Amino acid sequence: MPESAPGRFASATAVRRENDARYSATLAEGWDIAGNANGGYLLATLARALRDASGKPDAVSVTAHYLSPGKPGPVDIDATVLKAGKTFTTVTGGMTRDDKMLLHATGTFGDLSSRATTVERVEGAPPQLPPPDECVRVEGTSGFPPPMMNNIDLRMHPDDVGFISGAPHGRAQVRGWFRLLDDEPLDSLGLLLAVDAFPPTAFNAALPVAWTPTVELTAHVRARPEGGWLRCEFTTRFVTGGFLEEDGVVWDDSDRLIAQSRQLALLPRQH
Amino acid sequence: MPESAPGRFASATAVRRENDARYSATLAEGWDIAGNANGGYLLATLARALRDASGKPDAVSVTAHYLSPGKPGPVDIDATVLKAGKTFTTVTGGMTRDDKMLLHATGTFGDLSSRATTVERVEGAPPQLPPPDECVRVEGTSGFPPPMMNNIDLRMHPDDVGFISGAPHGRAQVRGWFRLLDDEPLDSLGLLLAVDAFPPTAFNAALPVAWTPTVELTAHVRARPEGGWLRCEFTTRFVTGGFLEEDGVVWDDSDRLIAQSRQLALLPRQH
User: Which segment of the chain is annotated as a signal peptide (chains A, B) (predicted)?
Assistant: First the structure.
């Protein structure tokens, strides 16, 4: 049986191992927002190198600090194993271009297929979404929505797209479906893309901002997704001190919670 | 006016700068749980070194990965500035003993007194707590509650202490007051202690666990606390895949949200 070609997400986030502690990669065209690579795309690429260095199959917890915007082109990645354990291995490293660090991340990696699930207690349910075909497919443009939307399949809840036409509903909430294109299977690295792919909650909250740059983003993965579609919901409760958090909850097609994310974002000063 | 002696928290978390990239510290007796230093205490000590290396006054976002337990005694801390900016400086580093890393953290530091607060939107309110004198002061023991409780002033909501006598209320929730002793003022490093000082929510949820070791903890600080008491609330929504999250919300005496925290903790396998 011929090996199938890697999907477009796997190709765009591919890393080359140069040695034990060093990888290289090329940030692809078409995964950017106004010329700069999407944060989730950057994170998935860096995490692919860190995961490789860990020798474990799954990202369990990954935290990234966004330091400089990154345009398409070659980057270097360093990876340092902090602790290699039987259950988890923790790796830290940065993505740099010309000695300028774009992104730094630390991740704990493991094997989610081996995790015990004898005790379960879930307070919450997946967001109620119309079927994907009745949601609004976000199409990429050279401005907003960003070009990356043509490389993923993101369908927003019809109630949450008012901000596009200048009529946000006023709640700091964004809900929708997410999957990779071309039936590319989605693993924990794809989840890292998903948690930063949706429009900011601030747009629906009608906050007077055009952008909310990420300071820090952490994603926790509980299980490998089953099926192609993710049900995603992002909310913000606290806009204060010049910051806002964005909390993501990701469920798979089987209504299982598979990931949580939180990012601290900056409310740019008003001029 | 004579300079006042450093408080017991400042003393216990003091770091000595050896050079640009290296600090030393001594983990103090009495801040442990069953012999191992409390996670928030470890984090505050490491963050004090990283903050010093940043040259900024406040911890804004700090993420820690817990790698090995740490007993009282000397430790080394390395600190690497990833990006020094006008607004924020991001520093990463680890705390080691005998070349074994106990804890690794990455933090973004800044000056919270200068943050714009023109846009505010808060969906939520501080936990409703009886006054501190009507709450339950947790006293340290050599077992549980841990000795650290004698070095802080932690008062739990009377409704949330049932687990101590074997009668948990069944909700994954812990609420209470927190302050440093001897009127020691509390800054963003004290907040890092506070967010890991309360008993696990799992105890009130009546989950069959005696411990829930932390894999990763992130704290976001929105403002410097005003007044001595913090109002704290910790909840868990998702116990699944062998993990649980613990979400903290911290308010100050003026009813301002000043911090959020989230940790991913491990549900030990049942035997």
Answer: none
Q: How many CB atoms lie within 10 A of CB B164?
A: 16
Least Cα separation, residue A2 to chain B (angstroms): 34
Q: Are B190 and B232 in contact (CB under 8 A)?
A: no
Peptide bond between residue B74 and the one before it cis (omega within 30 degrees of 0): no
Contacts of B64 in chain A (CB under 8 A): none
Question: Token pair for residue A224?
Answer: 């490998």
The distance of B28 to chain A (nearest Cα, Å) reads 24
d(CA A34, CA A30): 10
Size of interface A-B (CB pairs under 8 A): 173
* Residue A159, Cβ density class (10 Å: 0-12 exposed, 13-18 middle, ≥19 buried): middle
Q: Please, what are the domains in chain B?
A: 8-112+131-266 (2.40.160.210)
Hey, are the CB atoms on B82 and A101 less than 8 Å from each other? yes
Which residue from A121, A245, A257 is facing B260, i.e. has the nearest CB?
A245
ipTM of this model? 0.95
- Amino acid letter at B225? P
Tens digits of residue pLDDT in A151-204:
999 999 999 999 888 899 999 999 999 999 999 999 999 999 999 999 999 999
Distance of alpha carbon A236 from alpha carbon A157, whole angstroms: 17
